[in-house]
């Protein structure tokens, strides 16, 4: 059964955040809110957690997973960012954007696109997510909580707890966080390619 945590949206309870971070370090898979919608997340090197996300979402090996980072310094450890791309990404973060970039050796091979050697990265503008990332001290391996055959992500913490009770270990609920997933921009070729139009404005990349 998944543990349910009711988190204050503006002043996250420090002890609760610490408890959740400890559970992630111990191998937990969580459902948590972001600035676009709910996501599934686990520790970066958690192979079992990765497999559970694939199973819940019915994902194949070509799916781009996302490293949700606390800040730009952390993001820069995991992807290569040249000067032009740096300016574009920096101007759009934190915010509801995922950027696909070439991965560094810090990224486990199983997270990279098998041919392109790329990975998704993002810096969310969400108080609860930022508090958790700060406590964890490393990125969360994440994927949008969009179930197979459904058009929109789940948005209510109680419903996530009800439907995923036996496949996730914890649900963090700080209120409704929307149904639009991130806008995805692929910079792996050096030029911006809009892969998915979502919560983030695409005008700056067109």
Automatic annotation (TrEMBL):
Pfam families: Sua5_yciO_yrdC
Gene3D superfamilies attached to this UniProt entry: DHBP synthase
Record's signal peptide: none
Stored InterPro entries: DHBP_synth_RibB-like_a/b_dom, Sua5-like_dom, SUA5_domain
Domain YrdC-like, residue spans: 14-200
NCBIfam families tied to this protein: L-threonylcarbamoyladenylate synthase (TIGR00057)
PANTHER family to which the protein is assigned, alphabetical: DHBP SYNTHASE RIBB-LIKE ALPHA/BETA DOMAIN-CONTAINING PROTEIN, THREONYLCARBAMOYL-AMP SYNTHASE
Descriptive protein name: Threonylcarbamoyl-AMP synthase
Source organism per UniProt: Streptomyces bambusae
